[in-house]
Amino acid sequence: MTIHRISLTINGEYEQLDVPSNLTLLQMLRDKLALTGTKNGCNAGECGACTVLLNGEPVNSCMLLAVECDGAKIVTVEGLAHDSQLDPVQQAIIDHGGVQCGFCTPGILISSRALLDRNPDPTEDEIREALVGNLCRCTGYLRIVDAVKDSAARQHTLAN
Ligand code: FES
Ligand code: FES
After folding, report:
1. Closest CA to 49 of 109, 9, 96, 126
2. How far is CA 9 from CA 29, 71, 94, 109, 116, in A?
3. Measured in angstroms, how far is the CA atom of residue 120 from the centroid of ligand 1?
4. Alpha helix (H) residue ranges in the chain
């Protein structure tokens, strides 16, 4: 198996890693970097539990090879909080009881953060569309959608 040296930024930290050709981004995050917040649900691009930001866009990390991410900026759920302050969407999902088993939560948080970064005032339909690739078997989505709406409102309050 060929080994490739790649460089990338993960949660603001520069990393250089030697990775085999067949290592997925998900395996690299979890097994090489111990960033186990990103979950392996289906390993087939179906559930969204492995969602991370790649250059600001949400992607399924189980469907990308680590070598494809050379030079990229990756953000995982561990990178959402800053200075011991949770991201507003993290706080809102706690406040709305949008977490049950929690397995989908990292992916939901990442997809929600990507939505709010490109659209700070999303409608309910836009929130549901943004989360269409993130399956949750527990919550019925209502509390999650309410949390994303509320975090948009909180961001507005902070900005004004
Ligand atoms: S683990 Fe990647 S989409 Fe399910
Ligand atoms: S909280 Fe259990 S899968 Fe979403």
Report:
1. 109
2. 12, 7, 28, 20, 22
3. 26
4. 25-27, 88-95, 105-118, 124-130, 142-159
Ligand 1 lining (C-beta closer than 6 Å):
40-43, 45-50, 60, 62
Pocket-testing residue among 136, 144, 145, ligand 2, by greatest number of atoms within 8 A of Cβ: 136
pTM score of the predicted model: 0.96
**Rounded to whole angstroms, how far apart are CA atoms 1 and 151?**
45
Choosing from 50, 103, 132 the residue with most ligand 1 atoms within 8 A of its CB, the one to mutate for a pocket test is 50
Q: Supply the mean pLDDT for the chain.
A: 96
Phi and psi for 92 in degrees, rounded to 5? -65, -40
Residue 81 one-letter amino acid: A
For 22-38, write each residue's pLDDT tens digit. Answer: 999 999 999 999 999 99
β-strands 51-54, 73-75 pairing: antiparallel
